[in-house]
């Protein structure tokens, strides 16, 4: 399936657009291809875009002053990635986005998203729904980090995204869960 069809099927789950409206919507996206390990957004960058994943896997992460990495998100096909705080406030990026695997994305500039939202009400509804679902997922993850032990968070992750364990290096899964690589190994082996 090509990028256009993937995006069309994805948004059709939320809104209905005529073929003409969808073609206009799609014309604002720029296809981009990145290699494994390539940085899409670096800390300190000025942002004007968000990325819809067609193929591959991205990670959104933060590195603190002690050089410890915290994974905020893994973005797989049909997921979106950016530093949304920087994107919506105009501040420089505090998080980075790079490629865990080779990746194909569709890039949408903020000015184009806003123009589309003004011109087509259904698209405004789509982006509002998507933003709300992103907030819900972030809140759910934060509550899990505050209330659940490492084992429960690990089991929750594997249940929700079973393909991650074979796709993402174990040190990155550990960083996402907030545990050491050794703890992750113990959790994995206790499941067998």
TrEMBL record:
Which SUPFAM superfamilies does its entry note?
A: cAMP-binding domain-like
Pfam families noted in UniProt: cNMP_binding
Fetch the Gene3D superfamilies from UniProt. Answer: Jelly Rolls
Point out the signal peptide segment.
none
Question: Where does the Cyclic nucleotide-binding domain start and stop, copy by copy?
Answer: 16-116
What protein does this entry describe? Answer: Crp/Fnr family transcriptional regulator
């Amino acid at each position: 399936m090509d990028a256009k069809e993937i995006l069309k099927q994805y948004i059709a789950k939320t809104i209905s657009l005529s073929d003409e409206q969808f073609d206009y919507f799609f014309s604002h996206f720029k296809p981009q291809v990145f290699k494994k390990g390539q940085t899409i957004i670096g800390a300190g960058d000025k942002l004007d875009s968000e990325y819809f994943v067609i193929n591959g896997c991205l990670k959104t992460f933060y590195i603190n002053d002690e050089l410890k990495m915290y994974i905020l998100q893994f973005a797989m096909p049909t997921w979106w990635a950016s530093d949304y705080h920087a994107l919506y406030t105009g501040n420089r990026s505090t998080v980075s986005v790079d490629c865990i695997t080779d990746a194909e994305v569709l890039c949408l500039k903020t000015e184009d998203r806003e123009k589309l939202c003004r011109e087509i009400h259904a698209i405004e509804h789509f982006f509002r729904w998507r933003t709300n679902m992103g907030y819900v997922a972030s809140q759910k993850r934060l509550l899990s980090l505050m209330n659940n032990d490492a084992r429960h968070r690990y089991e929750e992750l594997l249940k929700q995204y079973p393909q991650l364990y074979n796709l993402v290096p174990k040190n990155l899964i550990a960083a996402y869960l907030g545990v050491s690589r050794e703890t992750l190994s113990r959790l994995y082996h206790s499941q067998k």
